[in-house]
């Protein structure tokens, strides 16, 4: 059953709020902050190499890479003005699900967060951590506020472009770094794991808005794979093993097209999702993705999948991700209904 490749990203331990929102002026539109360049990482079963160029016809959003710095240096902390804007934006982001109805959030708070993150980024355009937070907020805006198809395309076009440009810049700097490996250099950039994670998330949603086959042919699946592998290489447990969760979902759902996505492996899908589940057994999205992968690619273990779905359907949502966890709980209940023959499309 075709479901989103990586909507799990939006549920990767993002702060939510259960408190009453403080009065805030209605957000007004702001111009987008200018992003920064880039590629991603390596196939999961090869040695670390810079992300390859997209296949012919793929969207080239990164632009030319900047002149690399001679050595890698740690990313400086934000200035007080930037830090204050980011802290205020974080407050709005924490209230992003306030007043949600039927799984759809009111965009008021998330729009306020995006405006403030953009202001902070305008003051510090190379601040990777702030860019990652903006991309996280944009991802929520596109995935959880009832945005229509054209609005989704606009959001994820911008997000994938911004993220990929920043990744390209970091990759160029890491390649030029002396006396350390690529991954060691990337770890010096504050916010790098989050940047790679949310860039993968935006590419995934970009692909969903255009169809899985069209996205695969454009090379997006390969980019998502490489970005997720880099997250694993930097920190395998980052955001509840999100790198493994992304890779597992990708291998489970991406179409296998010769010469384009011939690397897709259902065995790897199960392996990566089991690793993510082992690292974070309470994570709702990982439970759901692993259950689906078992039903699709390992049906002999259907009982295991049913147990995972039952846990996903009945476990109370985490306070910080009420809306996101609630979404997957509803999907798990619907899948259980199908499995039990209570609705069309039963797998029994």
Average pLDDT level: 82
Number of contiguous helices: 13
* Main pleated-sheet profile: none
Return the structural class. mainly alpha
Rg of Cα set: 20 Å
Number of strands: 0
The succession of helices and strands, N to C, reads HHHHHHHHHHHHH
Question: Alpha-carbon distance between the termini?
Answer: 14 Å
Beta fraction: under 5%
Morphology call: globular
Helix content: 55-70%
Unreliable runs? 1-70
Summed up:
The protein is mainly alpha-helical.
Description:
The protein has 348 residues and is an all-alpha fold. Helix content is 57%, strand content 0%. The chain has 13 helices and no strands. Helix 4 (149-176) packs antiparallel against helix 6 (192-210). The radius of gyration is 20 Å and the shape is globular. The two termini are 14 Å apart.
């Amino acid at each position: 059953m075709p479901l989103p490749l990586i909507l799990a990203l939006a549920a990767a331990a993002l702060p939510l709020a259960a408190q009453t929102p403080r009065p805030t002026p209605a957000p007004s539109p702001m111009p987008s902050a200018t992003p920064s360049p880039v590629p991603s990482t390596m196939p999961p079963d090869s040695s670390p190499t810079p992300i390859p160029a997209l296949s012919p016809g793929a969207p080239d959003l990164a632009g030319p890479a900047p002149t690399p710095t001679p050595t890698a240096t740690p990313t400086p902390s934000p200035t007080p003005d930037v830090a204050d804007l980011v802290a205020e934006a974080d407050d709005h982001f924490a209230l992003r699900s306030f007043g949600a109805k039927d799984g759809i959030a009111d965009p008021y708070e998330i729009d306020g967060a995006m405006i403030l993150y953009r202001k902070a980024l305008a003051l510090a355009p190379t601040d990777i951590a702030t860019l990652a937070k903006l991309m996280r907020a944009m991802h929520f805006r596109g995935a959880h506020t009832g945005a229509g198809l054209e609005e989704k395309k606009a959001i994820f076009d911008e997000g994938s472009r911004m993220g990929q440009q920043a990744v390209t810049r970091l990759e160029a700097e890491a390649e030029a770094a002396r006396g350390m490996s690529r991954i060691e250099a990337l770890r010096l950039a504050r916010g790098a794991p989050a940047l790679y994670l949310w860039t993968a998330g935006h590419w995934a949603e970009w692909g969903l808005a255009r169809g899985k086959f069209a996205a695969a042919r454009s090379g997006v699946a390969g980019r998502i794979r490489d970005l997720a592998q880099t997250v694993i290489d930097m920190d395998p447990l980052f955001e509840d093993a999100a790198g493994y969760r992304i890779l597992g979902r990708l291998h489970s759902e991406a179409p296998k097209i010769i010469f384009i996505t011939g690397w897709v492996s259902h065995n790897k899908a199960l392996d990566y999702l089991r690793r993510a589940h082992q690292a974070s057994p309470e994570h709702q999205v990982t439970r759901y993705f692993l259950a689906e992968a078992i039903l699709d690619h390992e049906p002999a273990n259907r009982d295991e999948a049913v147990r995972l779905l039952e846990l996903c359907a009945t476990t109370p949502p985490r306070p910080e991700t009420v809306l996101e966890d609630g979404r997957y709980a509803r999907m798990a209940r619907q899948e259980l209904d199908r499995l039990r023959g209570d609705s069309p499309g039963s797998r029994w």
